[in-house]
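F.,

This is the one I mentioned.
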């Protein structure tokens, strides 16, 4: 069984999901992959310690603190490839960026391959079930494109600005499939 509750953030209401032990999902209002990654029915239950911990983490984050992902019990479930990508996302420091291509090179190396598709990495990033905490908003195109955020480009920009990222070399693409 899976549980859910809600928490107000400066980015809108966040829905949190848990398997009872760890956080399995965190989605912002209007997010394109909302609840898609949970296998089973979500029952509303606010009184789980993982939800209390996640609310505190989010409150700290939005108040300008830099809480550690390791402070939370995460229960990420995915393919081996997705888990590799999500693990790399967790390691992106607060206020810093990486690229889909950079993650692809690291994953290729970890898998003993010569190359890896940045688009495949983009698919894994786009299916990240724990928004903000697993910081997929910190991934941009190699050319500075702010493409590909399930919560919407406007929220990606706000999160990056909140973290103090220099936005001068970044831009919103005018067309594309990942807007």
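My design for it:
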């Amino acid at each position: 069984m899976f549980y859910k509750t809600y928490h107000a953030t400066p980015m809108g209401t966040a829905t949190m999901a848990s398997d009872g032990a760890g956080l399995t999902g965190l989605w912002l209002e209007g997010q394109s992959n909302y609840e898609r990654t949970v296998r089973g029915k979500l029952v509303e239950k606010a009184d789980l310690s993982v939800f209390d911990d996640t609310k505190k983490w989010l409150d700290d984050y939005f108040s300008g603190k830099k809480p550690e992902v390791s402070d939370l019990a995460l229960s990420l479930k995915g393919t081996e490839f997705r888990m590799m990508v999500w693990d790399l996302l967790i390691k992106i420091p607060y206020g810093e960026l990486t690229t889909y291509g950079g993650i692809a090179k690291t994953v290729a190396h970890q898998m003993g391959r010569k190359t890896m598709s940045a688009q495949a990495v983009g698919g894994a990033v786009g299916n990240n079930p724990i928004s903000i905490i697993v910081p997929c908003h910190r991934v941009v195109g190699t050319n500075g494109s702010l493409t590909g955020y399930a919560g919407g480009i406007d929220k990606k920009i706000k999160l990056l600005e909140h973290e103090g990222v220099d936005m001068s070399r970044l831009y919103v693409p005018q067309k594309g499939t990942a807007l």
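The chain has a mean pLDDT of 92.

Talk soon.
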